[in-house]
Write a structure and sequence with these properties.
mainly alpha, Cit_transptr-like_dom, cell membrane
């Protein structure tokens, strides 16, 4: 492509420079408007400077990529609601054998989840969990955060839906989903192994923590919370049984209080009668009237005691019957609530199963080679219908700012291509970047690696994708496919080079810095010490395995 006029070259370069600065450094002091606004500003400048016409700007927006990105985000949101990532977190701790085992599990689970649900989503969800586990076991969070971010980037390279640049490559190259996965999966698996090995070598001593140094306080708190909720129905039934026992004890006490009065009076009368000597019979006869009156008074007292005790018994029995009636009235309500809770749990279980089945169906459709954008959109709408509630709260979680960022980026990159600068640079590089020999692959990989860290990976793919593919297509169709896969692999793994290399790194860094569990700042230089050797080794090994 020939160079445009000098005015267009200068103005287009200025517009692209504005976009690049705000995309890489979204909080620059002189214009802290963020990536999304910076992308729209670059697109607007391309139109204002007449590098692109308005129609060309609209035509530059790739709707299939936006549709695929939107669909995968909606599916990820519903999977998160269905506790998919919660189960992944539990899998991390299932029969773990220490810090080193936990590090390897984080690498593996982060890679798999990123390949299926995008790397950004996995990092958003798993960062908090990783920090919580590190705090519970008194472990340093640094190696685990590096494992999470780097493995998410490597794992996301294996599928077209793993990250945004792969979405662009999948749509532009028209490589079927299955062939894409088969082409990169071996490199991804070996890359995860090498990345974990590098982490273990760098942090072996730091991860050598004895079990008696671990702090299980967090786990104890969790168990207490679970127990308090789990045993609340049992506590209710236990209190009811205590009430019935209390009533029985009251009845026994009342009987004991009434019976001694009656027996005591009779015993006293009999004792008095037996102790009277025979010589005093006359006195008894003389005073028989008085004694009879005394007996009558005792009998009247006994009758009074009997009446009062009967009244007390009747009162206690009536209260006991009322208590039993209240318990009987409460039992149907409790059983009804139990049935409602059981019904709710079954509905929740069926809904979650439906979400998983729809997601599996989407993956099967993608493997069958159906249109990826419409597969993702169809799965998203199926989940919305399956939820059978207002989809507003779920759709509000979609990152519309990312979709807008992509729109502005498409226009800005298209305008920069119109200047002719990318074509001129590629014409200079192409003779040295043929992928039919090792030197050319190394030069191409190094170029992609540098540009991905300077201009970000998605703009790099948009700038180089068609040119690299056209150069490889001149050799053979197989080489064209290999060129696209190499571009996907290198541009993705390049994100591990520095903290600013990918959005996943920045997500982990920000989430860790603002975490309520264990606030930790992942610095640029601490990441770079690990990122440089890991990126170079993983990239080089992967290049030999991609076919």
């Amino acid at each position: 492509m020939a160079m445009a006029s000098s005015v267009k070259v200068v103005l287009g370069s200025i517009a692209f420079a504005v976009f690049w600065v705000l995309a890489v450094f979204p909080a620059v002091p002189f214009l802290p408007i963020g990536r999304t606004a910076g992308s729209l500003l670059g697109a607007m400048l391309m139109v204002i400077f007449r590098v692109l016409t308005p129609d060309q700007a609209y035509a530059a927006i790739d709707l299939p990529i936006l549709g695929l990105l939107f669909g995968t985000m909606v599916v990820s949101i519903y999977l998160e609601r269905a506790d998919m990532f919660k189960y992944l977190g539990k899998l991390l701790l299932w029969k773990t054998q220490g810090a080193k085992d936990l590090l390897c599990r984080i690498c593996l689970i982060s890679a798999i989840s990123s390949a299926l649900f995008t790397n950004d989503t996995s990092c958003v969800v798993l960062t908090e969990f990783v920090l919580k586990v590190a705090k519970q076991h008194n472990l340093p969070p640094h190696p685990f955060l590096l494992a999470l971010a780097s493995s998410a980037n490597i794992g996301s390279a294996a599928t077209p839906i793993g990250n945004p640049q792969n979405l662009v490559i999948a749509v532009q190259s028209k490589i079927p989903f299955g062939k894409f996965v088969i082409g990169i999966l071996p490199a991804m698996l070996v890359g995860i192994f090498v990345n974990a090995l590098i982490l273990l070598c760098m942090f072996w001593r730091l991860l050598s923590v004895h079990k008696n140094e671990e702090d299980p306080a967090g786990e104890v708190v969790v168990e207490e919370d679970v127990s308090s909720h789990r045993f609340s129905p049992a506590t209710l039934s236990h209190s009811a049984s205590l009430n019935s026992q209390e009533w029985n004890s009251r009845l026994e006490n009342a009987d004991l209080k009434s019976s001694p009065n009656f027996s005591g009076n009779i015993d006293n009368a009999e004792t008095l009668r037996n102790r009277l000597p025979s010589s005093e019979n006359e006195i008894n006869k003389v005073h028989s009237g008085a004694l009879d009156s005394a007996r009558n008074s005792i009998a009247s007292k006994e009758e009074t005691v009997d009446v009062s005790s009967h009244k007390r018994e009747e009162t206690i029995l009536s209260e006991r019957a009322a208590s039993n009636n209240r318990l009987r009235d409460a039992c149907p309500t409790e059983s009804l609530e139990g049935k409602e809770n059981l019904t709710t749990r079954w509905k929740r279980l069926l809904w979650k199963s439906g979400v998983y089945l729809v997601t599996i169906g989407m993956l099967i459709a993608l493997l069958m080679g159906l249109n990826m954008s419409w597969c993702a959109i169809t799965a998203a709408l199926a989940l919305v219908v399956l939820d059978f509630t207002d989809a507003g709260p779920s759709l509000q979680k979609v990152s519309y700012s990312l979709l807008v960022f992509f729109c502005g980026m498409f226009i800005t990159v298209e305008g920069f291509n119109k200047t002719g600068i990318p074509s001129a640079l590629w014409d200079f590089m192409e003779p040295h970047a043929h992928i039919d020999h090792a030197t050319g692959i190394a030069v191409l990989a190094l170029t992609i690696l540098v540009l991905s860290n300077l201009a970000s990976n998605v703009p790099t793919v948009l700038l180089l994708g068609a040119r690299v593919a056209a150069s490889a297509a001149a050799i053979s169709a197989a080489e064209e496919k290999k060129a696209w896969l190499l571009l996907a692999w290198v541009s993705t793994v390049a994100g591990n080079l520095s903290l600013l290399g990918s959005a996943a790194n920045l997500i982990v860094c920000e989430q860790a810095r603002q975490s309520p569990y264990l606030a930790y700042t992942l610095s640029f230089w601490s990441h770079l010490k690990f990122g440089v050797p890991s990126t170079l080794l993983v990239t080089a090994i992967g290049l030999t395995l991609i076919r």
